Amino acid sequence: MSGSARSVQSSDFGGLRVASLYFTPEYSKNGVNISAKLEINAFMNLPGKANNGEGRNEIIKLTTWGKLAHVCAKSMSEGKEFNAFNCELHVFDKRVFMPSLVQGQPGAPVLLPDGTPLTTKGNSFTIGKLTFGEESNKHIAREIAAGVRPLNWNQAGSVEAAQWKETLKARQAVQYDPNSPTGTYGYATIRQPSGPGIAAYIPQAVGAAPITATVAVAPVAAAPVVAAPAIAPGGFVVPNGV
After folding, report:
1. CATH code: domain of residue 115
2. What span, in angstroms and rounded, lies between the C-alpha atoms of 209 and 215?
3. Residue 192's closest CA among 89, 201, 19?
4. What's the total number of domains in the chain?
5. Residue 116 lies inside a defined structural domain of this protein
6. Is 9 helix (H, G, I), strand (E, B) or coil?
């Protein structure tokens, strides 16, 4: 056979918006450490003739690992814009479930006649590099209305801008709490690992997944130091919605 027997794949995505986040903490499986993982469901608005020329909307799944998973869980509010580069495609088998009868709970798995679970192919992209864009206007307005964000949070040199900078620092300082009363970590819903061989993360164990990526954010101008606000453990106290 002539030519190469191997394919090369790398994908970039620009102008994505956060739809939802799911965080899985560090754990071990059969004695091997697995790094923390953040699954990002993202809106992708594509131009085209569909919807009277408005184009079409798709949702894609992307994944970050390790320290970046923690940073993104505490930074990526609903509707926040971001760009993902050098993304590696992963194809996997996923189980098929019946529609749920209880909100927030998965439906029953679909089984084949021999009792084995029905599966279908799914795909996700592991992010190599990530840059943050602007937040959703609706999210900003709701935080201001709820008293979480100062009205003049983006007015350079103001006291309120300095307060907001300290709020962001406090959010990044929040540690993962497995007993979070809200079931959230930052902006992400927590998904605890389960199944055969699953156990607690083993400090300094050999075999932790060395998956890393980089994130770039716009620099923030220096501002007067003010007292950091109190942040609830686990998740952020912010209104729902994009």
Report:
1. 2.40.50.140
2. 19
3. 201
4. 1
5. yes
6. coil
Q: Are 189 and 183 in contact (CB under 8 A)?
A: yes
Q: Residue ranges of the alpha helices (H) in the chain?
A: 50-53, 66-73, 137-145, 159-173
In a domain, 75, yes or no: yes
Whole-number Cα distances in Å, 165 to 60, 95, 170, 171, 204 = 31, 43, 9, 10, 34
Count of H helices and E strands in the chain? 4, 12
3-class secondary structure, 189: strand
Span 90-97, mean pLDDT? 86
Q: Within 10 A of 158 (CB to CB), how many other CB atoms are there?
A: 16
User: What are the structure tokens assigned to 10, written together?
Assistant: 């790398």
Higher pLDDT, 211 or 215: 215
User: Is 17 domain-assigned?
Assistant: yes
Query: What residue has token string 């953040």?
Result: 38
Closest CA to 185 of 236, 132, 240: 236
Distance between CA atoms of residues 104 and 238, nearest Å: 20
The residues near 194 (Cβ < 8 Å, ≥ 6 apart) are none
- Rounded Cα gap, residues 38 and 207, in angstroms: 19
Instruction: With beta carbons less than 8 A apart as the criterion, state whether 127 and 211 touch.
Output: no
Tens of pLDDT, residue by residue over 116-162, are 989 988 889 999 999 999 999 999 999 999 999 999 999 999 999 99
Contact 39, 148 (CB under 8 A): no
Kindly provide the b/e burial profile for residues 161-178, where b requires at least 16 CB atoms within 10 angstroms of the residue's own CB.
bbbbbbbeeebeebebbe
Pull the structure tokens for residue 238: 């912010």
For residue 215, list its beta bridge partners: 130
Radius of gyration of the chain (CA): 20
